[in-house]
Design a protein that fits this description.
The chain is an alpha/beta fold and about 450 residues long. About 45% of the residues lie in helices and about 10% in strands. Strand 1, helix 2 and strand 2 (about 85-90) form a beta-alpha-beta unit. The radius of gyration is 22 Å and the shape is globular.
């Protein structure tokens, strides 16, 4: 039982760092729990109306330059004006919570009913949704505009329990100049990808794929779930996995065998990948054109200090699978406490924040993929190949609350075991154990 707790905590830390972390890493130390400046809005009866938002960022100074903060805050301001309700910010900072991760704190606060709504990571959405701690948001007006991928990823036990302001897409970042130099086409399949690696290695690129200890699971998830999400039978397959009729390890095995082959051939340096932090590790070699390919998320192509200002032709494509190039999509989401004393006011605020008007404002700052099917990203040229696939409805979900086994964090942890020398069979046994644990939990609850 203790091992189960440790596994969930490690997975929770990973998700916190690299999903909500997309916000946290861009924010300097925020203040402690903050109250809004100025007076609260008063309704006709003279009663103040406000709701509490808990997240990794608070209100900024009017001239703040941080675009991630500003984008979210601008939508909050718009929602406040439209609804006549004020949003109070309660903010997570590491120094305030010491050893507790953002996920840990969110779980505690939701269970304790300390706030009205929260910015949550996928594994926390899943956990709290299953506990019945999050309100059903399916009655919001904004829901009719949502992409199906958003509803699929955040529906728990038939209830839509979270909605994001952006969709995070992961892809393969490639140096197009090097591909052109060696007459290489964009790889569509794992076999074509391995051939590209062989050509690069034979031409002096000792490690063709720059990797870190967090994002190699994108290869596994894209290959493992390419058919599940694009074969027209998604719901039935997920039910079969959740019931135990299909083994999760059978989906994961091709991706792990693919990674093992890359490791054995030296296309990925397992030792450095095991210790590298995302982008901080492999990013320097990629920008210096010593490594032809890396994995990263959509926003890295827009941000100058990441990969948005490299000295070569950057292209971002999907990961190679049997169904061609496949983006991996994940997302944080806003969830509302089911026990909120201001439930209707909170839903009104969130509905305004998720309106097409507000999401369009959000996109002006961040150039992200919107959860609304009515809004198309104005992406940089480098992202167009990846964006085209997403617009075609071709993608794999890196996080899906409908799957009983949390996949993003757990897959990452098991990939790290592969990097550390574990066999593919040993990795598959760990997936089997996770699935069996979920089955036992479900049985115990019946």
């Amino acid at each position: 039982m203790e091992q189960k707790k440790k596994t969930r905590r490690r997975a929770s830390r990973i998700t916190a760092i690299f999903l909500t972390g997309l916000f946290v890493c861009a924010v300097a130390a925020c203040g402690k729990e903050q109250m809004p400046e100025g007076n609260l809005i008063v309704n006709d009866e003279g009663e103040e109306r406000s709701v509490k938002l808990f997240g990794p960022m608070g209100k900024t100074d009017p001239d703040a330059e941080n675009t991630l903060r500003t984008a979210q805050e601008r939508t909050v301001i718009m929602a406040e004006k439209a609804s006549g309700i004020t949003v109070d910010y309660n903010t997570y900072t590491a120094q305030d919570y010491q050893e507790k991760t953002y996920d840990d704190v969110c779980i505690e606060r939701v269970r304790s009913g300390l706030d009205d709504f929260y910015l949550l990571n996928p594994d926390v959405i899943k956990l709290l949704g299953e506990e019945g701690m999050l309100a059903d948001l399916s009655d919001l007006d904004a829901v009719k505009n949502l992409r199906e991928v958003v509803k699929t990823a955040n529906t728990v036990n038939g209830k839509l329990v979270a909605i994001p302001q952006e969709i995070v897409a992961y892809g393969l970042f490639i140096n197009q100049d090097l591909f052109d130099r060696y007459d290489l086409e964009h790889p569509q399949t794992p076999e074509e990808f391995l051939e590209c690696c062989r050509v690069f290695q034979e031409n002096g690129y000792e490690t063709p794929v720059g990797a870190n200890r967090w994002w190699l699971e994108t290869f596994v998830l894209s290959q493992g779930f390419a058919d599940l999400y694009n074969g027209g039978n998604t719901e039935a397959e997920i039910k079969a996995i959740n019931s135990g009729k299909k083994k999760l390890s059978d989906y994961m095995r091709p991706g792990f065998e693919f990674l093992k082959e890359m490791l054995d051939k030296g296309y990925i340096d397992a030792k450095t990948a095991y210790t590298y932090e995302a982008i901080d590790g492999e990013g320097a070699d990629f920008k210096a054109q010593k490594t032809p390919m890396v994995m990263a998320y959509w926003g890295a192509a827009n941000t100058d200090y990441l990969y948005g200002n490299v000295d070569f032709n950057l292209q971002v494509i999907g990961f190679p699978t049997s169904r061609g190039q496949m983006p991996v999509v994940s997302m944080t989401g806003y969830g509302v406490s089911a026990g909120s004393q201001h439930l209707e006011d909170t839903k009104k605020i969130l509905d305004q924040m998720l309106s097409d008007e507000a999401l369009s404002l959000y996109m002006e700052n961040n150039q992200v993929i919107s959860p609304s099917k009515n809004l198309e990203a104005d992406c940089v040229d480098a992202l167009k190949p990846l964006n085209d696939r997403i617009n075609e409805g071709v993608y794999v979900l890196g996080s899906n609350a409908n799957l009983r086994v949390e996949q993003w964090g757990n897959t990452c942890l098991i990939v790290r075991e592969l990097l550390n020398g574990a066999s593919v069979d040993a990795c598959m046994k760990e997936f089997d154990r996770l699935q069996e644990d979920c089955m036992e939990k479900d049985g115990a609850g019946d």
